[in-house]
Specification:
The chain is built from 12 helices and 6 strands. By secondary structure, it is mainly α.
Amino acid sequence: MKNSRSDLKRPASRRSFLKAGSLGVGAAVGTDLLSERLAGAQEDGAPLNRGDIAILTFLSALEQVEADLWIQYAELGGAVTQGPTSSPIDLPFKTGLAPNYITALQVLDGDMPQYIADNTDDEISHHRFLNNYLVSKGAQPIDLSHFAVLPPSQVTGVPQNGRLTNLKQLTVDTTWWTRYRSATANPDFGGSFENAVPDLAKGQHPAIPLSDTDLVLNSDGSIPNHLQAIANTAGFHFAFIEQGGSSLYPALAQKASNLEVLGVLLSIGGSEIMHFQTWHDKAGNAANITDGTLTFPNLNNAVDPNTGATGPQVADEFQTNLIMPEPTLFLDPKLGPVAIIRPTSTQQGGAVASVTSFANDGLFLDPATGKNTGIVDVLLELAEAADGAQRKGN
């Protein structure tokens, strides 16, 4: 993840957003209003300092973003029933509306619909819990629903309400794949990494079917390459999203002052790591197909899909079943390699880096304007406050 704001298109200033008027309880805020809220929490006797509340507020905001994108995946590709008794999935909306999309997702793993539903439920719970926790400490919750203006899929049955995220035009960074396989490089030490699927990191690719047209099967009942490419893109995007959370929570935990807040971050962060490990494994089963200019390479043929290089080292960098973190450098090279989450520095894995990564992914692109929505401005302001938190005490 990059810690840079220079390449983001920012359609509206934070101040113009704040001048637009009150958005109700839990409204999205920039750092000016956030400062007021933090001060109020202190006056109410909340045992959290400003930095802890800034961290929790940002994480709740980002979890709302994740919940929004996972809801879209679950609507189309999530399981409808659960377990041998076929009990309904416990989500407050219809799931599994695109059976042929589910069939394509199941090429990656037969349990994909259940995992999607479970991941969605988890992210909803993260946002809800963090907001409730903030309120319990005298601080204000956060709500970004004012920015839910992006159009969803047009597949039959999908509610046509606005969304925070756009899953139709993604540019997916897959360098997390080689980053976790490297025994000699760590992004926190300036290491750079190659993409597992170079074409996903170029152009814009849908991770959900745009309409019923994308769901039509071949005349023999087989899955068209285009539909499989959409499912493959989703599979790699799942892991991209969750590897960000795997790094973000430990990066911010190092800034927490309150021990209970530290426990919250470590506990929720652990579930994000579980998500990432699951999706990392499933992405490796993506079918080796080509759809127009998008090719999903065979990652087990010991050929670097970026350069064409071959050899044992190349095989180790891309082999699909090497999903456990390879020991690498940490803290001081003199200490020797160790298996770790990477990155965990503020610069590479912190709040601003996470927002920048999501924006570069295309998550906030408005197809009507080709620019990011105003949510990026607000997320960046909240992210700067979170990254700026300083741990107090021993």
